[in-house]
Records
---
Amino acid sequence: MELAFIAFRKMLVMFIILIAGVIAYKTRIVTKEGNATLSDLLLLIVNPVVIFMSFQTDFTEELFIRLWISIGFAFICHAIAIAVSYIAISRKNESFDIERVSAIYSNCGFIGIPIINALFGQEGVFYLASYIAVFNILLWTQGYILMTGKTDIRHIIKGVCSPCVIAAVLGIICFCLNIRLFAQADEAFTHIANMNTPLAMIVAGVTMAQSDLLKAVRNVRLYYVCFLKLIVIPIAAAFVLKLFNADNVLTMTSVIETACPVGASCTMFAIRYNRNAVYASELYTISTLLSALSLPVVIMAAELM
């Protein structure tokens, strides 16, 4: 119950920052093009730094074992999401590719990092880094194939070698070899990492401000996909992961990451590969709003298990 309450309070803080992003777009302080630049800054610099810094901790055999368990848990969570989405979302639906990608791939970076950091601190972000690495690998393989209907090896390799994955690999190497940054670099990287929450929510707010919210809230189909993404899949993941009787922080980190709203990556894929980007944006917007209530519910359910 306590974790759910902390998560709810953190979501409220994040949504206040998100509103600032909406205002920034409506008053033209941040344009659509400017938001794309901020998003790149977040994805290519801030998020990788957060991930790398999470591994700047003393090596222990126990933590090393938990690292590989967290990688396994990330694959299990995504496997559950893929299975549920393929069962619950039929190919007969015109936008089945958008809906499946939205149900599978969460906003584990923008939303997940600040939530996990607030709940579990550096230990949680340490496990979260593994989840994000697995997320990127699967997004640019299974997600890419699902969205485009074809296999482009060069594109997949480029996606898998994303800054977040590279940061995770470098972080793991430094962790295993006990390589630590010198004091000034550590302080500088920490300042960059601290930009994650405000920058992520401003980007989310500007993105949300570009969608037709009134149209989105009237689309009943959106709520079905959001229910799968925000409730069914994470609770199914929680049930399966609890069977392993692993460390609670490790387990809850994976569950919370799975329970995060639809990732912005789905909208970016839709724009890039000429799919229904408006629908993808609506799923992103509605799921982000609903996650303020659904995340605490999922956390509470997982704690009761």
Note: The chain has a mean pLDDT of 84.
---
Amino acid sequence: MHGIRYHRASCVGLAERPHVNVLVIDNDLQNRDLCCHLLRELGCVDPRFVDCGAEALRVAEVATDLDLILLELELPDVHGIEICRRLVALLPNVPIIIVTGRTDAAAVRDALDSGAQDFMTKPLRAIEFLARVRVAMRLRGERLRHFSQEQRLTTRARRLEKSKTDLERIACIDQLTGIANRRHFDTLLQIEWKRAARNHTQLSLVMLDLDDFHALNELYGHLGGDLRLKNVAEAMTKSLQRASDVIARYGGEEFVALLPDTSTEGAFAVAERTRACVENLKLPHATSRCSDVVTISAGVATVAPRLEVDPATLIEAADVALFRAKAEGRNRCCAEIPRVAKLFAV
């Protein structure tokens, strides 16, 4: 063909490639025939040919396995430079070689500026064609390997980040009930105390305790006790109505509700609603001194925090209120004014 001799040995390595998928965009039938013959030397037994830019873009939009694009600049509908830019956007990892009859420097400059990897002029020379395509394919292979490595590193980084997040979450969650644990509560209390001190807002705490829990454990066993702790924790969580409010397991059968920007009246309403939610579960408790179902007692405390005051004063006040609720018969809520509020009272 065209007096050109082809040497299969000139493309050792690529000829071993089982499938090379090439798109040829050219309306020159003679050049297409020559490209087809040369591409067979590279392992492409069935190159795809289109004769206009619009069809080339349609092919590129659905293509998933292209290895190389050969593009003529002078097309009947859209100029090859514009087609090249669009193809690069659609298929950034597929090399594009411009194959054209133009030989001026401006054509070369525009082709490379538009994203083409290489430039060949017509009439095609077999040795040059094979060499340039071989280089383009080698660079594509390196680009794909680099892309694959980047994906692996990105995936690994995401997994590490997820593992870190999971570990942080585990460190904050009580394993039995699935709510915040004591450690996380202590952290949140410090944060909310400082926030309230800066914003001059109130901070409330509700201390909650299952009534006669030790007797319950003796009657139903530790598994029965654990199950009731889970049920109660779930009911307490559902009783909260604001995203800023947090229920945490304080220890054993004791829980706390941290309520930012909440007055004594508001906190007492939350405590009473939580107490009622637990009672309405109607979990049997045959050895309770106040009911035949599982109940809780609650102590409420509210303060306008100050940075110079220890947040422990809020816990102490809520604990005092809880003790009073227990002493007055259990299954009830009591409120206490923190010592710091009394000291700063006007």
Note: The CA atoms of residues 246 and 258 lie 5 Å apart.
